[in-house]
């Protein structure tokens, strides 16, 4: 990995006649990179240059390198991936950093040493647009040859936000994929329509809750799961903190909770799903997922930031497994903790989760325990549902402190296409306290609150 680098300085003794009289960059050593304000990234160099690399690469005749003089790259379709970066500072810095991104995220090599031909003309990224995005920021659109991303999500993420994620004042806010790239992503196995069919709820908003608190045994958690299912909760999920601990073994919990939900479904005619948490060591995730299914789980909870987004993809693509996946945001927060770096809310919790294969994307709703704003939450929900090639939609699951008092504002914001994740509020609501009967009645009360919201606003999917 290299920091922001600048083309090598051309000495006055170069043998290339085209270099005569060229003004050299400032005398800062090339290895130190540009000044902190980003000035000086592009040097005035000689030779014929594509417009998107103007003034940044040296004429091939001057190169002191063993690379071939000219290279033709086979298999290029001409299709381009589009990534938009919000860059803090004035427009000059935006252009400077944008030009750096085109190199850093592709060849990561001094442009003045590149062979002429397809590498600088097509492999190196291109800045195609720069426009203001507020008083002290600009959005810079960079395109990349589609073939650079290969055929997997790992390389796609590496291309659009690899080394650049280490730069201050740069935030990835949008991503556009041509069909030649999006065709490689199966995405959610079920999507919104498929998971609605599973719970026999084609039109209404869904209710979800997590099994808490950490420290309860399998029997107690199963009692809670059963009460939730009888009370009308659609998605009953392990809390992300429930793993395979000495005080709570994975197999005992999943077997007990799966059986409790199945029994409640049979008794009431409901179709609640139980999502077992399979977030664990990478070499154990797949085996644990299959074990969870065998023990009675009808869905899986996964933390993609802990096990890797491609692990979600592997689980979603496993035809033998064939279970809905709920993605939990644990360990993702630093990507969105500030407005000046990281990844945009909708892109992270919506687009990328869908590309990975999540059927349900959990995120903190506004007004709860976390600092997400209503607009940021709207952005997430919209990205979960927006057109994305042939990739199915994911169901937004706002949570993080929803209560009976905040539910109306939430339903006004998200409308029908959401799974409202209520945790402690389900235990607190009502006068029945935290007994099993109380949980069931509280769940019914929340079910009525969601179903009886005065007006649902369908998010624009176009």
How would you portray this structure in words?
There is one protein chain. By secondary structure, this protein is an alpha/beta fold. The protein folds into two domains: 17-182, Alpha-Beta Plaits (2-Layer Sandwich); 191-451, Alpha-Beta Barrel (TIM Barrel). The chain has helices at residues 91-104, 118-123, 153-161, 179-182, 191-199, 218-231, 250-268, 285-295, 304-307, 309-317, 345-356, 374-385, 407-414, 424-428, 436-451; strands at residues 70-71, 80-88, 116-117, 126-132, 137-145, 170-176, 206-211, 235-238, 273-277, 299-302, 325-327, 342-343, 360-364, 395-399, 419-421. The strands form three sheets. Strands 14-13-11-10-9-8-7-15 form an eight-stranded parallel β-sheet, with helices on both faces. It has a five-stranded mixed β-sheet with strand order 4-5-2-6-12. A two-stranded parallel ribbon has the order 1-3. Helix 6 packs parallel to helix 7 (250-268) and helix 10 runs parallel beside helix 11 (345-356). The model is unreliable at 2-51, 55-60 and 454-462 (pLDDT under 50).
Strand-helix topology:
Blueprint: E1 70-71, E2 80-88, H1 91-104, E3 116-117, H2 118-123, E4 126-132, E5 137-145, H3 153-161, E6 170-176, H4 179-182, H5 191-199, E7 206-211, H6 218-231, E8 235-238, H7 250-268, E9 273-277, H8 285-295, E10 299-302, H9 304-307, H10 309-317, E11 325-327, E12 342-343, H11 345-356, E13 360-364, H12 374-385, E14 395-399, H13 407-414, E15 419-421, H14 424-428, H15 436-451
Parallel strand pairs: 1-3, 6-12, 7-8, 7-15, 8-9, 9-10, 10-11, 11-13, 13-14
Antiparallel strand pairs: 2-5, 2-6, 4-5
Helix pairs in contact: 6-7, 6-15, 10-11, 11-12
